[in-house]
Amino acid sequence: MTAIRHRLRFGRAPRTAPATPDVPLATVAAPAIERPHERVPLYVWQNPVRITHWLTAACIVVLSVTGLYIADPFLIPPGGDVMSNVRFVHILSALAFLLSGLLRTWWLLAGNRFARWSAFIPTNRAQATELFRQAGFYAMIRREIPKVLGHNQLAATAYLILFALLLVEVVTGFALDGLMGAEPGYTLFGWLRELMGSQTLRFIHHLSMWAILAIALFHVYSCILVDHVERNGLVSSIVSGYKFPTREEIVESRDGGEELLERVEREQAE
Q: Which residue has the higher pLDDT, 21 or 153?
């Protein structure tokens, strides 16, 4: 009625503001990222993470080689000083491996956002679905890779399985060492030998070793692939601790954000 009265009085309809699409307020208010494609150094992997990573990797290699020799002495006849030395190196590596695992477990509580337990266990829907999106990328079904600065959820899940397998290796290994009367395996895990038997323990111990080696092989493949795609220094970061994501990636990544970019900029300014 107002428009009709206006037309009768002035001969034309009143002008109205052009219609605009409904745009979320957050989209309008979000500030643009300055120099979005500029790469900046981001300290991701702290010293305990890098130390335990390489110590665990070295222990896995030594334990696998010495374990295979203990199971089947393929170079020289069994027995003698050689077998004793191989067993000694195997147990020493197992103790170093256990120490590495305890340190990494502690750092799940004391580390930064990329090392804490929340980086491994999904705490929201986006983190849970990322597992399947990352798997699709590795299977060459999806072209886009989820934006993550630390561990993607598929890698984190593989690490959880790896931690469980390593725990199985430690328990069964010390239980088997107890067969020779060695401590602490003889006293602590005598119940396990009685429950499962020595042959079953050996089977589980060796099967876990092959599963660990399979995960390690996939780990190397996935790191090289992601480093090639993202070009942010993923492979070298486990040595230096630094990755080089773009400013845009830091803001948009699941485990990133504007506050993280601001912190990086402050560190650069200092």
A: 153
